[in-house]
Design goal:
Distance between the termini: 93 Å
Order of helices and strands: HEHEHEHHHEHHH
Strand content: 5-15%
Shape: globular
Structural class: alpha/beta
Largest sheet: 4 strands, parallel
Helix content: 40-55%
Number of helices: 9
Radius of gyration: 26 Å
Strand order of the largest sheet: 3-2-1-4
Length: 232
């Protein structure tokens, strides 16, 4: 009789423990599911080449450690050429988040046919004479042009409202505990940045005047931060 009663009590304890574990797992699942459902539709966008594998793995390692292992935002990799299997394997193993790879349409990347290449080369040389960075780099200009108005038109980005641009070879020195995407969404902000670098004036000699002229003709003035961006 003693052994029978002890066995029943043992089974009851096991059952109670199992129920507690089940409830704990269920609660954690609900918390995670709720947080995922409330997350902004955001993505980490990477524009790079197959040859950037080592540097982008370094960037991903630090971003995951400092931020994304907690929030698990997806990645979209874009390239004007097909990504190699080695590149895809090498980046996939750096994160547990969803990763997608896309190729940029030539119409979004290649130099337009209406560009006067002879005049462009003359302009390149003028920039070289003034020691301007990337003076002879066509690919750098293609990258700037793509991020100025084409990247968000890629079909892989249609389902997202916000993006974080990640570059190969960058570093993250501090933990990022707050979700910048949630801050942008909650405060209805469109744009955020971590650092502003001064422009090389020979590359934008007419930009400031044109920007201020455009602003002066608008019925509704631009953001009050405009003078900050166009000051000398």
């Amino acid at each position: 009789m003693f052994w029978r009663r002890y066995g029943i009590k043992g089974r009851n304890r096991t059952l109670k423990l199992s129920l507690r574990v089940f409830l704990l797992v269920f609660i954690m699942y609900c918390i995670v599911s709720l947080s995922q459902a409330q997350k902004p539709k955001a993505v980490i966008v990477v524009l790079c080449r197959n040859s950037d594998l080592v540097d982008i793995r370094s960037s991903m390692r630090e971003l995951e450690a400092r931020f994304n292992h907690k929030f698990q935002y997806p990645y979209v990799f874009l390239n004007n050429e097909p990504f190699t299997q080695d590149f895809m394997d090498g980046t996939l193993e750096m994160t547990e988040s969803l990763v997608e790879y896309g190729q940029i349409p030539p119409s979004h990347w290649e130099v337009p046919r209406w560009i006067n290449q002879s005049l462009a080369q003359e302009s390149y040389q003028l920039l070289n004479n003034r020691s301007v960075s990337y003076w002879n780099s066509t690919t750098y200009r293609q990258m700037c042009r793509y991020f100025s108005g084409f990247f968000f038109r890629h079909e892989l980005l249609d389902k997202y409202d916000y993006y974080w641009r990640l570059e190969p070879g960058v570093h993250f020195y501090c933990d990022i505990d707050d979700d910048p995407f949630m801050i942008l969404e909650r405060e209805r902000k469109d744009y955020g940045y971590a650092i502003v670098m001064p422009e090389e004036m020979p590359t934008i000699e007419s930009l400031v005047d044109h920007a201020l002229d455009w602003d002066s003709k608008q019925p509704k003035k631009a953001h009050p931060m405009l003078p900050f961006f166009v000051q000398n």
